[in-house]
Design brief:
Shape: globular
Strand order of the largest sheet: 4-5-8-9-10-11-14-15
Structural class: alpha/beta
Number of helices: 12
Number of domains: 1
Length: 408
């Protein structure tokens, strides 16, 4: 059972005038919250996803909630920093796919409470679906629509490419065809490099134990090179690192190998990590499902502590039980520039402030303005601990901070 350091308290105790201001903001809809936070609290919550500037560090991860244009519009209007689209399964020019079994349409999702091994109660969402169940052609149309929502709203495609067993060749034609087609759509809407996520599904953790370590390391090592070689133009590539079913120490070995100071990894940034996998749990007749909650964030935070002193050698996009601004800051203290969420948009609405807003707006509002656990309260708390008074302070400063300075 892993247990990470928690560098921040369960609830933030801050100066009374700031506490009153946050309680006031929490009780109402705040227009243009990032500008409001800068003006009222002298705090900048902007950050980056890959090379893209984002107005706040909160985004939606690839999954069942990013499968159509209306969801992307809701994300943008709701105040999210970015949206990662549902993961498409790579195809070749003949429309065949070596990973075709990942095209599973099972949209039903169930929200449940989970108590972690360390006794923390959180939420997880369970579903049977895997990747985009339609064709690559349909996905390209979706990407085209999503990128047209607003010129400066960050929308990122996600792909699962062929992953061979040891000794099997990669299906390179699928790498080339899929990446080229995505690049063509991207260039219709954006001037810079194609920004792309390579997904590693938690379902991959169900593969046989024999040779699993070697297979995972070879995938993480080889796939970024193959994606970048598949087109003639530069790509800004994020690779989702797996949470494996191997002993916990292997997770730290992956972090050390690919995010340590001596890494030569070709990924431009890392998504850390996918969900945990329970090979015994049954859902809707399927045995073996992914799950989240505090077991997931505990393992993720613990694994990232492997590089906590020097910080990861590549930018990190965090995933896993980002249920508060406080949890986002715990990831940020380990070098994460942003956080991707899925479950947080589906929890009971009683968990959000009772304001008149859409679900997405309520989620973002909760993450920013909760007076005890929100991002703004946490940044004020850290600023006070550092003795900076009411000086200008930024979220990005936290990502470079030695977190042990905060422990009393």
């Amino acid at each position: 059972m892993v247990k990470p350091h928690y560098f921040l308290p369960q609830e933030f105790l801050i100066a009374a005038d700031y506490q009153r201001a946050l309680q006031e903001d929490y009780a109402q809809v705040v227009q243009e919250p990032e500008n409001h936070i800068r003006a009222r609290y002298n705090i900048d919550v902007s950050s980056y996803y890959g090379p893209i500037k984002i107005k706040n560090p909160f985004g939606k991860s690839s999954g069942q909630l990013s499968t159509n244009k209306s969801q992307v519009v809701s994300d943008m209007e709701g105040g999210l920093g970015f949206t990662v689209l549902k993961t498409v399964i790579a195809e070749g020019q003949d429309h065949s796919s070596k990973m075709d079994e990942w095209k599973i349409f099972a949209p039903k999702m169930t929200v449940e409470k989970l108590t972690s091994r360390n006794g923390e109660e959180g939420y997880s969402v369970t579903w049977k679906g895997r990747g985009w169940n339609k064709s690559l052609e349909d996905y390209l149309s979706f990407v085209d629509e999503a990128l047209s929502v607003q010129d400066d709203y960050p929308v990122i495609p996600s792909v699962k490419y062929h992953l061979p067993d040891l000794g099997e060749d990669y299906k390179l034609e699928e790498y080339m065809y899929t990446t080229q087609k995505l690049l063509e759509v991207w260039k219709k809407h954006r001037d810079g490099e194609l920004v792309l996520e390579k997904d590693f599904s938690p379902t991959l953790a169900s593969t046989d134990m024999a040779g699993q370590k070697e297979r995972i390391i070879s995938w993480l090592r080889d796939v970024p090179r193959l994606i970048k070689q598949s087109v003639d133009e530069p790509i800004h590539l994020g690779v989702k690192m797996m949470n494996t079913t191997i002993a916990d120490e292997f997770q730290r070995e992956l972090v050390r190998t690919f995010l340590g100071p001596d890494s030569t990894w070709l990924a431009d940034f890392a998504v850390c990590f996918n969900r945990l996998f329970d090979p015994h749990k049954e859902y809707e007749g399927k045995v073996g499902v992914a799950y989240g909650g505090y077991d997931l964030s505990d393992r993720n935070l613990w694994a990232l502590e492997e590089v906590i002193e020097e910080k990861p050698s590549r930018p990190v996009s965090a995933t896993g039980n980002i249920c508060s601004g406080k949890m986002m800051l715990e990831y940020a203290l380990r070098g994460a520039l942003n956080g991707q969420m899925h479950t947080f948009f589906q929890i009971p609405q009683t968990e959000y402030a009772q304001i008149d807003a859409t679900r997405t707006q309520k989620a973002v509002h909760e993450l920013l303005f909760n007076p005890q656990r929100g991002l703004v309260a946490g940044l004020i708390y850290i600023r006070e601990i550092l003795g900076k008074g009411s000086e200008p302070f930024t979220f990005l400063e936290v990502t470079d901070l030695d977190p042990f300075l905060l422990m009393k």
